TrEMBL record:
NCBIfam families: PRK07051.1 (NF005457). This protein is a component of the acetyl coenzyme A carboxylase complex; first, biotin carboxylase catalyzes the carboxylation of the carrier protein and then the transcarboxylase transfers the carboxyl group to form malonyl-CoA. This is Biotin carboxyl carrier protein of acetyl-CoA carboxylase. It comes from Mesorhizobium zhangyense. Pathway: Lipid metabolism; fatty acid biosynthesis. InterPro entries: AcCoA_biotinCC, Biotin_lipoyl, Single_hybrid_motif. The lineage of its organism: Bacteria, Pseudomonadati, Pseudomonadota, Alphaproteobacteria, Hyphomicrobiales. GO terms for cellular component: acetyl-CoA carboxylase complex. Transmembrane segments: none annotated. It holds the Pfam family Biotin_lipoyl. SUPFAM superfamilies: Single hybrid motif. CDD domains: biotinyl_domain. Residues 1-77 form the Lipoyl-binding domain. It comes from the Bacteria. Residues 1-20 are annotated as: Disordered.
Length: 77
């Protein structure tokens, strides 16, 4: 199992915009390099990517949650 950690402090978003579906949902397979969400810091958005591949992703942070740098966002099996 691997964890995907927040690279920056800010607000975590699971989709590219409010009217778009999430990048990934719980139970989805994930490949290394897949975008799983965005961190917004002072109106600037930074992609969060998976560093490892897996067959199942489980999010630990909800959409629009404030997160600190290094906080776990998701587990990947």
């Amino acid at each position: 199992m691997a964890q995907i950690l927040s690279p920056l402090p800010g607000t975590f978003y699971r989709s590219p915009s409010p009217d778009k579906p999430p990048y990934k949902v719980d139970g989805d397979a994930v490949a290394a390099g897949d975008v799983i969400g965005l961190i917004e810091v002072m109106k600037s958005f930074h992609e969060v990517t998976a560093e490892a591949s897996g067959t199942n992703i489980r999010f630990l942070a909800d959409n629009e949650d404030p997160v600190m740098a290094g906080a776990p966002l998701a587990d990947v099996d």
